[in-house]
Amino acid sequence: MAFNLPKTDKKRVVIVGGGFGGLKLANKLRNSDFQVVLVDRNNYHQFPPLIYQIASAGIEPSSISFPFRKIFQKRDNFFFRMAEVRSVFPEQNILQTSIGKVRYDYLVLAAGTTTNFFGNKNVEEHAIPMKNVSEAMGLRNALLENFERALTCASETERQELLNVVIVGGGATGVEVAGALSEMKNHVLPKDYPDMPSSLMNIYLIEAGTRLLPAMSEQTSQHVLNYLRKMGVNVLLNKMVTDYDHHRVILKDGSQIATRTFIWVSGVAAEKITNLDGEHLGRGARIIVDEHNRVKGFDNIFSIGDQCIMPEGDPNYPGGHPQLAQVAIQQGKLLARNLKALEKGKSLKSFRYRNLGAMATVGRNRAVAEFSTMKMAGFWAWIMWLVVHLRSILGIRNKSIVLFNWVWNYFSYAQSLRFIVYARKAKEVVDRQARLASQHWGNDLNSKGVDAEE
Q1: 3-class DSSP state for residue 249?
Q2: Pairing relation of β-strands 34-40 and 78-82?
Q3: Which of 244, 284, 301 shows the shortest CA–CA distance to 87?
């Protein structure tokens, strides 16, 4: 397999990752003097802030997913390739992927993060992460299947394991998942499962720190805590999960919670790139970059978004920027400008993050928002949250579908997406993925250089 890119006199920019940062960069390089190649393991861009609503059957996956090829239709000198990144060879300007290698003039790493299980193998094996659409679909299937099994199981012990939900991590994702599942418990279960008391379902939100939403103010954290407890969520603060064994979440103090729905949203680590390690990595395995998002030690490799850390470049954030969509978007926008400046021999502009505020929703009519001069909580914060997120979704069709689902669910409490669906891959696809998993790890690169063919 090969990239099969057309020959060109233009400089080639290879972007790894089509998240917020990579997508913004690719868009800002529109009509530039570069050949732009976007590499992603999926063929679509996803909107992570609403992934939890897929898990709670509030919206369908396609409404927050948008194909890259649709986004970049009729774009000259833009190419998308679906592939997994294997390694980077900076000396030869080569990126190795699951479909082969590609040369670059500029490489931009924007692959984001993966779930961090902190080395706990039991947790990694059994917990359900919430980083992408596929994982959200897995959680939705697990929840709905457990509800069905709870009606027919043989013992009360098993029934309680099936109906207890444990969420680990008190950040925005954990809070939003807990709120959405609480609304499912209070409004969906009584209708769909009238022969099973909804009071049997228990939702636990566990946070190792002293408060929820630690990135926001204490006042906002208290609002969220009050909302969740009024909604029936069992919030456990200052509690650390140490293990999971035989359908039991084990806490550091020795207490246990029985559950077969164990959701882990407690931390992330940057996606790893082989040959960029050791001195190139900072906290959370994030790639160290300078004030221009250039990777330490390289002139033509950059990194943006959650995958990188800028420990010294921005005086307002000496420990690095928060891993937020706005940071990635702003970095992608500036990097496009700087890449154009490089080609013209002009000076580069240093990155300075402009904090536009933070928001989180707990449920219907309940949200919190913080801006530089204002804090909000309740209905109007919820309305603002809806508007901001609706505007951020790609495509008029997707905006319309999400808006329709929100309005329908608001008045009816009747999500119609509660299907248990397990995708089956065609044998040809399974066989090809098995072959690719063992290929293209740099074996076509020799010690003296690289094969000239792409």
Answers
A1: strand
A2: parallel
A3: 301
Tokens 């044998």 locate to 427
Q: What 8-state DSSP symbol labels residue 274?
A: B
Domain that holds residue 201: 121-266+358-412
Tell me the pLDDT tens digit for each residue of 240-259: 999 999 999 999 999 999 99
Tell which of 397, 412, 427 closes a domain.
412
Residue 73, classed as helix, strand or coil, is coil
Does residue 258 share a domain with residue 151?
yes
> How far does CA 135 lie from the centroid of its chain?
10
Same domain for 161 and 288? no
Is the sign of the CA dihedral 181, 185, 191, 195 positive or negative?
Answer: positive
Taking 3-state DSSP, the helix, strand and coil percentages for the chain, each rounded to the nearest 5, stand at: 35, 25, 40
Least confident of 256-270, 354-368, 390-404: 390-404
Phi, psi of 106 (to 5 degrees): -130, 135
pLDDT for the residue numbered 335: 98
Task: Summarize pLDDT for 175-188 with one digit per residue, the tens.
Answer: 999 999 999 999 88
CB 235 within 8 A of CB 212: yes
Residue 447 banded pLDDT, cuts 50, 70, 90: very low
Convert the pLDDT of each residue in 323-349 to its tens digit. 999 999 999 999 999 999 999 999 999
CATH number, position 88: 3.50.50.60
User: Using CB atoms within 10 A of its CB, is residue 452 exposed (0-12), middle (13-18) or buried (19+)?
Assistant: exposed
Q: C-alpha distances in angstroms, 360 versus 29, 172, 174, 396, 420?
A: 32, 6, 10, 24, 28
Burial of 384 (0-12, 13-18, 19+ CB in 10 A): middle
**R_g (Cα) of the chain, nearest Å:** 23
Give the per-residue pLDDT at 23: 96
Model confidence, pTM: 0.89
pLDDT value of position 442: 61
